[in-house]
């Protein structure tokens, strides 16, 4: 029997329901477990974590919306990740981790052999946490790292922290998707990110929705896509003070790049993913939703 999925949202989980989840995990019959926004006791959370540690089939774990709500729960999760070897995607969006929580998780996250997608949006992170996250984006020639990273809505990160992330992105050998929406970045940080995008050989998606950008940032990105070859194929600039004309120019240039790539590609590549251009809201959600289906 193929591994199934367990998806529960916003419910109060009874000990009996938790027991069923744990048994399914231990039987390696679950590939996706989502308990986003659910309420459960600390004891039951620990039971689930111990079962996650034993599971060999679990590929995706969704603990969004406050499930990891204390340092003790963070420790339970860290212990589970140190033993688990199958997990590829971890969602912790909306968890009050703070820097201390990421310090607790760091060793387990950075050494996990299969983890490639991590959502730490709205986790109340600061510069210390971001420094640890940069270590999960190893440079060329180093170990494999994250392919998708979400850091939406972490306003406690300073310009120094974002500058450090930009450097890590520029040299990362794996990162394909970076969601930074709803952080107060401004034009200066956007300029650093443009340099990182121009340097990266892998980054395809950058979400900057609602990050306080103006036409100044858009002009920098326009110059980049117009004059320099990049891997970028999706740039989200919605909810910023950027003129529709500039957005359209960037969109058109990215589209031209897609057309050029299509002409250069071999005739039969069934595994190639289609390129797309989005300058509207909600990209991060849509990308993550693909993995949740």
TrEMBL record:
SMART domains: LRR_RI. SUPFAM superfamilies: RNI-like. Pfam families: LRR_6. Keywords: Repeat. This is Leucine rich repeat containing 73. It comes from the Eukaryota. The keyword ATP-binding does not apply. Residues 257-278 are annotated as: Disordered.
